[in-house]
Specification:
The complex is a heterodimer of chains A (174) and B (284).
Chain A (H helix, E strand, L loop, with lengths): L1 E6 L2 E6 L6 H8 L18 E4 L2 E4 L12 E3 L12 H8 L9 H14 L5 H7 L10 H14 L6 H13 L4
Parallel strand pairs in A: 1-5
Antiparallel strand pairs in A: 1-2, 3-4, 3-5
Helix pairs in contact in A: 2-5
Chain B lengths: L6 E3 L4 H11 L3 E4 L5 H6 L7 E4 L9 E4 L2 E5 L4 H6 L1 H6 L1 H8 L4 H6 L2 H7 L7 H6 L3 E6 L2 E6 H4 E3 L2 E2 L6 E8 L5 E7 L9 E10 L2 E10 L6 E2 L1 H7 L6 H8 L16 H20 L2
Parallel strand pairs in B: 1-3, 2-3
Antiparallel strand pairs in B: 4-5, 5-10, 6-7, 6-10, 8-9, 11-12, 12-13, 13-14
Helix pairs in contact in B: 10-11, 11-12
Classes of the chains: A alpha+beta (174), B alpha+beta (284).
């Protein structure tokens, strides 16, 4: 079946089998391996992407269901070689140990911050409940999300602001 | 993990969906948000020959005010149910239960109608639908019919939907001004309910005038705790009267025992969680 999907700003048209999962379309057909397969059981959230502006687990969506949709992956966040403020915050706060959950954590963080630009610790933990870190590195992840919220606050600085404005158009939505 | 091969159809109207479903035969399966079905396909616990996707049918989405009831399109996502001001005002119990469904990503894809039609006894929306006396509007080759929630849930993962029927919308009677709470017990974040209790209470001048209590995962289908409801009516909206009524919560229930909880523990949970749900619902 032929599908047309816009991924990270580029439109692709491909023949796919109806049974192909969106995550495998992204990884194997488009080569976008930044989105990873963690558990393959819908629990871990490592494969989180944005589908038409909302976070979803791409292992639980068929590629054919994304026909006509706009997808943003972790690979679509950086601009002109500059990391997105959320990526930067994860880096600076060492919000990773093995790093496997990081793409999903960051994509879900964007969704959370689009919804609640200044989440307290409880809201962060609740907002990331669909993402598991098997290294149990949650302390620094929570710290990074709160730091990212600070960086993306209006008036936080010209660079962060410019990127944050871009990201609001590209991802999150509400 | 990769599902077995299937044909995929994405009709754009309810009439088309019903027709292609009937044509596709008994090994066809309807997919709504897919948050239960795609994992099932992936694990090859099901191998339908045809998938009929309702995701392209605009008329199945949205929530409208219909006088004494809200009408919720079957393909309305949990995310949209949670955000809807009509739901918050008129069916607060549904809002409270939807808040606890899975996680944000799943709530973006998963649908109200899909969860009801899937009929997992641990699903969080069945007991609220039963307690609020919702009515399912279903459509098949013979046209539309309405099925009361108490008749809709038949057994584990089994509803009154016939093979050629789809769930179109759900009429939820307004319970405006009622206190409501959904109290869920599970071991870890995003886990299914081991037991949960849906409670909605109407009180006037500190006296309970009407009560609705639904139990999740205390049987193969959601259960109304009628004994608790009856014991509450006419009683003061206090912790004491709630405690006394909640003692009856497990009466007549026959929950399954499993690795999470045996029968006696589930019945204990039903009493404890009913107390908590009611106390929060009435603000006692």
């Amino acid at each position: 079946m032929r599908i047309t999907v816009t991924v990270d700003g580029t439109t692709y048209t491909d023949e796919v089998e109806p049974r192909q999962l969106l995550v495998y379309y992204l990884r194997e057909t488009l080569g976008k391996t930044g989105t990873v397969v963690g558990c393959d059981t819908s629990n871990c959230g490592a494969c989180t992407i944005h589908l038409d502006g909302h976070s979803v687990k791409s292992c639980s969506v068929l590629a054919v269901q994304a026909d006509g949709a706009e997808v943003t992956t972790i690979e679509g966040l950086a601009r002109d070689g500059e990391l997105h403020p959320v990526q930067r915050a994860f880096h600076d706060n060492h919000a990773l140990q093995c790093g496997f959950c990081t793409p999903g954590m960051i994509m879900q963080t964007l969704d959370l911050l689009a919804d609640d630009p200044d989440p307290d610790e409880h809201a962060v933990r609740h907002g990331l409940e669909g993402n598991l870190c098997r290294c149990t590195g949650y302390q620094n992840i929570v710290r990074a999300v709160r730091d990212a919220a600070d960086r993306m606050r209006p008036g936080a600085g010209p660079a962060a602001e410019r990127l944050a404005d871009d990201s609001r158009q590209m991802v999150g939505g509400e | 993990m990769i599902p077995t091969a299937f044909d995929y159809l994405a009709p754009s109207t309810v009439d088309d969906a019903v027709r292609v479903l009937a044509d596709a035969g008994e090994d066809a399966k309807v997919i709504a948000g897919g948050q239960s079905l795609v994992p099932v396909l992936r694990m090859r616990l099901a191998a339908p020959t045809t998938l009929v996707d309702l995701g392209r049918i605009a008329e199945l989405r949205g929530i409208r005010d219909d006088g004494d009831a809200l009408v919720i399109g079957a393909m309305t996502t949990h995310h949209d149910v949670r955000r809807d001001p009509l739901v918050a005002t008129h069916t607060a119990l549904l809002r409270a239960a939807t808040d606890t469904v899975a996680d944000p990503q799943v709530r973006h894809r998963g649908t109200f109608g899909g969860a009801l039609a899937h009929a997992d006894p641990a699903g969080d929306l069945l007991a609220p639908a039963l307690a609020l006396e919702a009515e399912m509007v279903v459509c098949g080759m013979d046209g539309r019919r309405a099925v009361a929630a108490r008749d809709f849930f038949v057994d584990y993962f089994t509803t009154a939907l016939r093979p050629d029927e789809i769930l179109v919308e759900v009429r939820v009677p307004k319970h405006t001004g009622w206190g409501a709470h959904y109290e869920k017990f599970s071991r870890v974040a995003q886990a299914w309910s081991i037991v949960a209790v849906a409670a909605a209470v109407q009180a006037e001048d500190g006296v309970i005038t009407q009560a609705r209590v639904g139990l999740t995962n205390m049987s193969s289908v959601p259960v109304r705790a009628h004994a608790v409801e009856d014991a509450l009516v006419g009683r003061p909206a206090t912790v004491e009267s709630i405690r006394a009524a909640a003692e009856l919560a497990a009466e007549g229930t026959r929950p399954a025992g499993d690795g999470n909880a045996d029968v006696a523990y589930r019945q204990h949970l039903a009493r404890v969680l009913t107390t908590r749900a009611l106390v929060t619902a009435v603000g006692a």
